[in-house]
Design brief:
The chain is mostly beta strands. Helices cover 10% and strands 41% of the residues. The chain is globular.
Length: 1032
């Protein structure tokens, strides 16, 4: 018991030391958090749209929310007033969102309306909700309240393993809300063959119907609702097209009224037909296009009506614009012109009602986006949003369906910054009979979400930041150093500059006094247009390249976007995907640091190209070499990229390897060629083998310097993993600007363990399969184990290897590797020991203490250069880690902490002392205490003081990177994935700055008191000394 108390006390001391300055009041001062939702999906059910929410209780106010689902597997609600995230829910990767629908239109048209008094009963339909289907075939139904995201219920419709996969994912599922008897029930189509009615409050299944036809011959894709029946609409496959099939089900019991095939010639299964149900209609109607002619079919319980042609119905396609319960849709003719189609009560048929002017296909503007909405009074409108090439502006035409009037507005949408408009929605109010006020919400190809009120941009969100492909820290220049580098300043110029700067002396004195009296080291915001390094080096620029084709510069202290650049659009229907970022000039080398963004330009049916975008890191100005592409980047080579490496010489050079194993350099000039000629014969790199049969092979390459440019890479070594393994990833250690501060670890007996610091070593993660390569998912194709190996890049020798039992089918191993310290995290699937594990490994030279082999300077031919031993230990964790990184400091004197992003949406800093593999069982000896060893405990503690993200919920983190500050004690941390989070940590405490508890005022008063005492006592002492000399 005494031993347990001692171990606990020591762990508490370690935690208290490693959590320096992590207090609640620091939240928002030393850290920042950006909430993101991801780029909205483009399929019609997921397009962001306005939803009006009437008050459910008396005296509640009307609310409005923008609902959407995104490529980050997030369903979210945005506040239209200020773009803030009202709520969001992220689904797991194995549970993708496949459909969603809100009942806001049902509540608006069929609900009881706004309560007039406290005695008014609640609307039995319940509040406005959002229903989602997720998983294969729509396996799970979830219902959320639209205004706050509260989960009402969750119901499994079928086992996810039994789900079918369709393209698009929305094809085999649909959602409708019951309109009979004022019920909140939901009817869901899942898996293309089953229909289930679910209680809208509890999620209990009311009834379920299953199609007997084989899924490969008939697939049901849509539901149409009526008071007495629900109609299941499907497609029967034929040789060259599809035939329409309809099954009518009794709405309260799910019994079959009838099933009928209708002669049709539908070519495209996706969005093949649109169903509408006007409130005054006796039955719902479906509309589709058959050989260029719009057809309509009025559905009844007996399914004995015949399809009829729509008058003047020559259309290329019909569009569902979300006005199903208003009886409206849009038809597009062959020339691109658009018309509103409506159910007419008089004839009980669908008619072509109004036409959108200037909607024919033209080179003057892009193809339009159509989406409908309801105003507060339930009146329908259809919006048409497009981009005009001639005026370089966006435009929205709003059609009021009551009279066909068109109200148009333009807005200055910037395609050079945001890309193309790919989604749009409108919000409409009609304060007077002939006055329509609208606002337009746009989604761009780069993930820019913007709300426009007439020509004014109300707000914008950069959701491309939720999908970053490459990130790099860039140091800011010191203002004094920049002044000295920017020109030769003469004596008179310098005197004049100092005289001019005297006008800032009062401001400087006030600021100095405030900094002196401050109890924290919170940074002030820089002046507009100024980017200088702060005294502590906390402010840096984070260059972040999004997979959506946009590059951002972020302030590391606030997360504010300093500038952004679009990688461009391409007339060959290509897109650029950034893969790596390199710092080409640092703040120590130039007044303006420079970065290179390496991107892959993917083209349909053409070879992939590798491009380079060279930016000024402070301003975003781009340097372009002579050979450029339509994307505005420099063409490095017209092939795919295998890998790229940075050579930190002066100037810096990037080595790139193409898919044919030829070596290219950037920038391509004489000095860079000279540098490559000097170091090329020493340069080594490793790549996985290309062939499927050799996916367990790692191949080392050198550069053949005797061949013409581009230089071929020649094979110098091969390393095979055991048969059946597949190399998944290569983990390189981060490049550090300074050598290690200590080459060894001094033990209690004064002997030294010398760190194994081979600069060429790297780690790989590989997976072993239960069956051959290419085996289908199942018993013989699942991954049964993972392995982590440390490889010497000079020879291909395996320096360390461990085989890890994991869950079947997954190899989710997270790795952090710095200097001689390796940490990896995995799920242990061994029976009686299941759980998450951290394994910490330290590599040392030789076979034990005082066995030095000088691994840092060793070459491939150095005797005993590969003599090393590993010290390792494992710890149990209660939470899954999603990303790992180690802290870095300027000189490496501070201890390294492990930064962990957890599945709890937290960022945690774990002291290295807790992960020391030399921790021993039992009571620590005096020698162990002298060395600072903590007694071994198998369970890694979860202490709130280790959480550096405070109370932020940092969702979807996939990567963590760190960078040193100017203070040796401090490391900057940046986590990204869905959300962005930045902070700073001090692994060994802030030993190089005064603590926040230090009484600066008392120090100043003490110094001033001593000064006053000196001034008073000095003349007294002088007079006394003089008297002594006179009267001795």
């Amino acid at each position: 018991m005494r031993l347990l108390r001692l171990a606990t006390a020591l762990v508490v001391v370690v935690l208290a030391h490693s959590s320096h300055a992590l207090h609640a009041e620091d939240a928002g001062k030393v850290d920042w958090h950006t909430k993101l939702i991801g780029i909205p999906l483009r399929d019609r059910p997921f397009v962001p749209n306005f939803h009006r929410v009437p008050p459910y209780r008396f005296k509640q106010s009307w609310k409005s929310v923008i609902l959407t689902a995104t490529d980050a597997n997030v369903v979210a609600g945005l506040n239209p007033a200020d773009s803030s995230v009202v709520w969001r829910r992220q689904f797991t990767p194995e549970d993708p969102i496949v459909n969603m629908k809100s009942n806001s239109d049902v509540i608006a048209l069929y609900g009881r309306g706004e309560p007039k008094s406290e005695t008014d009963p609640f609307d039995p339909r319940g509040p406005v909700v959002l229903a989602t289907l997720s998983g294969s075939g729509g396996a799970t139904l979830r219902v959320f309240e639209a205004t706050n995201g509260a989960l009402t219920f969750e119901t499994e419709l079928h086992k996810p393993a039994d789900g079918i996969l369709t393209q698009p994912a929305t094809l085999s599922n649909d959602i409708v809300f019951a309109i009979d008897n004022e019920t909140p029930d939901i009817i869901a189509l899942a898996n293309g063959r089953s229909v289930t009615r679910v209680n809208g409050f509890t999620g209990a299944k009311v009834w379920s119907w299953q199609s007997e036809e084989a899924a490969d011959s008939v697939i049901y894709t849509k539901l149409a609702i009526h008071h007495n029946a629900v109609y299941v609409l499907g497609l029967v496959k034929s040789f060259r097209s599809y035939t329409l099939r309809v099954t009518a089900l009794e709405v309260t019991k799910g019994t079959v009224f009838a099933t009928q095939d209708f002669h049709s010639d539908i070519v495209e299964a996706n969005d093949a037909f649109v169903s509408i149900l006007a409130r005054s209609a006796a039955f719902p109607t479906i509309i589709w296009v058959d050989n260029g002619q719009a057809m309509s079919l009025a559905l009844n319980e007996a399914l004995d009506n015949k399809p009829v042609k729509v008058n003047d119905g020559k259309f290329e396609r019909v569009l569902d614009v979300g006005l199903e319960h208003s009886g409206l849709l849009v038809g597009i003719r062959e020339d691109g012109s658009a018309h509103a189609l409506s159910y007419e009560d008089k004839s009980s048929t669908v008619i072509v009602k109004h036409a959108f002017p200037v909607s024919k296909r033209s080179t003057l503007y892009t193809d339009a986006i159509y989406l409908g909405t309801l105003d507060k009074q339930g009146r329908p409108y259809i919006g048409r949003t497009f981009w005009m090439h001639s005026n370089q502006v966006g435009g929205t035409h709003v059609m009021a369906l009551s009279n066909g009037q068109i109200h148009g507005v333009t807005f200055p949408f910037d395609t050079n910054t945001n890309g193309l408009i790919v989604g749009a929605a409108i919000d409409v109010a009609q304060p007077e009979p002939n006055m329509v006020v609208s606002r337009t919400f746009t989604t761009s190809s780069t993930g820019a979400l913007q709300l426009w009120q007439n020509q004014k941009l109300v707000w914008g969100r950069d959701e491309a930041l939720a999908d970053l492909g490459a990130v790099e820290f860039v140091d800011l220049p010191e203002k004094k150093a920049v002044t000295e580098r920017t020109g030769n300043e003469g004596l008179f110029e310098r005197i004049f500059r100092h005289v001019v700067q005297l006008q800032n002396l009062p401001v400087y004195m006030v600021g100095w006094t405030q900094r002196f009296l401050a109890t924290s080291y919170e940074l002030n915001a820089p002046a507009p247009g100024e980017l200088w390094r702060d005294p502590f080096g906390f402010r840096k620029v984070i260059i972040a390249a999004s997979n959506a084709g946009k590059v951002y510069a972020l302030d590391s202290t606030t997360g504010v976007v300093l500038w952004s650049k679009l990688l461009g659009t391409d007339d060959r229907n290509g897109y650029a995907k950034p893969v790596k970022i390199f710092v080409m000039k640092t703040a120590a080398e130039a007044a303006d640091p420079e970065v290179l963004v390496v991107a892959q330009h993917h083209l349909d049916g053409q070879p992939t190209e590798t491009l380079g975008y060279h930016f000024n890191a402070l301003t975003g100005f781009q340097w372009i070499q002579e050979e450029t592409t339509a994307l505005g980047g420099s063409m490095i080579f017209a092939k795919a990229l295998k890998d790229a490496f940075l050579i930190t010489t002066t100037p810096r050079v990037v080595v790139l390897v193409d898919s044919d194993h030829h070596v290219h350099i950037y920038p391509q000039h004489e000095l860079a060629n000279t540098i490559l000629a000097k170091i090329g014969h020493k340069f080594r790199f490793a790549l996985p083998a290309d062939t499927l049969a050799n996916r367990n092979m790692l191949v080392g390459h050198a550069i053949s310097m005797d061949d013409p440019y581009p230089l071929p890479a020649v094979e110098v070594w091969r390393t095979r993993m055991p048969p059946g393994e597949e190399i998944l990833s290569i983990i390189h250690r981060p490049q550090e600007s300074t050598p290690p501060s200590a080459l060894g670890r001094v033990l209690q007996d004064k002997r030294t363990l010398y760190r194994y610091l081979n600069p060429s070593m790297f780690a790989i993660v590989s997976a072993s399969r239960a069956g051959p390569y290419g085996a289908p998912e199942g018993e013989n194709g699942l991954q049964k184990s993972c392995a982590i190996s440390v490889i010497d890049g000079k020879k291909g020798t395996i320096l360390y290897r461990a085989v890890l039992p994991t869950r079947p089918g997954t190899c989710d191993v997270k790795v952090a590797f710095a200097q001689n310290w390796l940490v990896y995290h995995y799920y242990d699937s061994v029976e009686d020991a299941k759980g998450y594990r951290y394994v910490t490994v330290e590599l040392y030279e030789g076979t034990g203490p005082d066995d030095k082999t000088s691994s840092f300077d060793a070459s491939a031919y150095t005797p005993n250069g590969l003599s090393l031993h590993a010290i390792e230990n494992s710890f149990v964790a209660t939470t899954r880690a999603v990303a790992l990184a180690t802290t870095t400091t300027k000189y490496g004197i501070s201890s390294r902490n492990l930064i962990v992003a957890t599945a709890k949406n937290q960022i945690v800093s774990v002291s290295r002392r807790l992960l020391d593999p030399r921790r021993k069982l039992g009571k620590p000896s005096a020698a162990d205490q002298e060395e600072g060893l903590v007694p071994y405990e198998p369970l890694l503690p979860e202490d709130p003081r280790m959480v550096i993200s405070h109370n932020y919920q940092v969702l979807g983190v996939q990567h963590v990177i760190t960078s040193p500050a100017q203070l040796e004690s401090t490391s900057l941390v940046f986590a990204y994935g869905l959300d962005l989070f930045g902070t700073r940590v001090s692994p060994s405490g802030t030993f190089d700055v005064l603590s926040e508890a230090f009484n600066k005022v008392q120090l100043a008063l003490t110094v001033c008191g001593l000064l006053v005492a000196i001034i008073i006592i000095k003349p007294i002492a002088r007079n006394k000394l003089l008297k002594q000399k006179w009267y001795g």
